[in-house]
Amino acid sequence: MKRLARKRTRLLRRKHLIRPRPRLCVYRSLKHIYAQVIDDSKGETIASASSKDAEIKAKGEGKVKVASMVGELVGKRAIEKGLTEVVFDRRRYRYHGRVKALAEAARKAGLKF
User: Fold this and answer.
1) Res 6: pLDDT
2) Among 13, 44, 77, 102, which one has the highest count of C-beta atoms within 10 angstroms of its own C-beta?
3) Which pLDDT score is estimated for 57?
4) Three-state SS for 110?
């Protein structure tokens, strides 16, 4: 029941996020953080970055610092593809710590949300 309730909540939240702009979706595990820019109208990923990328993995710093590097990298990759505006989808994660660091770094890279 709990799994179904979470799935329903996720779908309801996503319904409010779907706009003509792509969404920057964040997934945070205990060790890593992942971010991807998704175009929901086409159902494809436009740009992505994670703490497992070779550019970031070698650095080996704290989790918040790594999250800001991931945000900067995904922002840079999205700008290279021609995107400037996205909708931020933090899923069920509170806007603080690693999620906040990722969002602020993406903004600093040039994404607007």
Assistant:
1) 83
2) 102
3) 80
4) coil
For residue range 45-73, list pLDDT tens digits in order: 999 999 999 988 867 689 999 999 999 99
Structure tokens at 66: 């790594």
* Maximum CA extent, the chain: 42
Q: Rounded to an integer, what distance in angstroms lies between the CA atom of residue 19 and that of residue 2?
A: 28
Long-range contacts of 55-61 (CB under 8 A, 24+ apart): none
**pTM (global) more than 0.70:** yes
Q: Write the single-letter amino acid at 71.
A: G
Judge whether 32 and 52 are in contact, CB under 8 Å. yes
- Kindly list the structural domains of the chain, giving each domain's residue range(s) and its CATH number in brackets, ordered by start: 2-109 (3.30.420.100)
Q: Cα torsion for 84, 89, 94, 99, to the nearest 10°?
A: -40
Instruction: Report which DSSP code applies to 86.
Output: -
Work out the number of other CB atoms within 10 angstroms of the CB of residue 22: 24
